[in-house]
Amino acid sequence: MRKISVAIVVVLLFAGCNKTPAIPPGDLGSGQVLDPSLADPAAYRISVSQPNPTLAQTQIPVIIACHGYSASTFEWDEFRTWSQGRSDYYIDQVLLAGHGTTYAAFKTSTWHDWQSSIMTEYNLLVKEGYKNINFAASSTSRTLLLDILHSGFFNNSTTTVHIFLVDPIVIPSDKFLPLIGVLGPMLGYITTTDAQGEEKYYYHYRPQETLQQLQDVLTIVRGELQDGITLPANVYLKVYKSTKDPTADPVSAVLIYDGVKTSNGNPIAVDLINSNLHVFTRLNLVPNATALDRQNQIYAFTDITTRIF
Fold this sequence. Notes:
The chain is α/β, with parallel strands linked by helices and 309 residues long. Helix content is 38%, strand content 15%. Helix 10 crosses helix 11.
């Protein structure tokens, strides 16, 4: 999820708006631009490219890379590019249900739909025999994974699971989102500001129905963290959090640190990253990305791929 401008909301509220946006053909959501994983799933999903792995292949770690709200598999393309030439782990990029196609499909999707894509891919890999299955999740996918953990989904799993949460959102930095239940039906949708090129990979127009779904899952997960989440013995969790995140309030990391404990009651690992970006691991279309931004990205990629063994 990227930052929503309150100023835009105010303008739309008082000026009135068409509740169905006119989406240019070159934008994601138009139906003419689709996530590439839909045309070539074997290039993105290990469950499709290697459905019958050898015994040796089942021992190789798989990293399921999960994108955020309104995004696409593009969000983890740089991780795949950085990993080129590595044969000691696999990268599996999941497209969340409702994403990557049309505005209508996105509008009618629920957070349970988004979450189901993550769980389905994991279950397929387990069925195919993979033993070391991990998650690198950005933004809202991190929230979905916390709910999966709270549900006990991994409690009886026989696989090794490492979960890496990059800039998880539990508390939004932009305080418009909690008002979506009141303002959303009047607006129909909100419009975000994109960097050049981003319109092909992110929904520029956000249906208010999906923003309400996002607010719902954030509220649920905050309650689950207050209840407390204990990780199964086979699950490792680490958080990487930008200190000046414009989308996910840094207090999100504090809530996760306080609310999640290892199987023996110890705190989870949290790295605070000196960054003012949301999803600091995705830089290619970020205007004026700095040398420090690149260092942060490489640090996270290196740390993730070291810890899965």
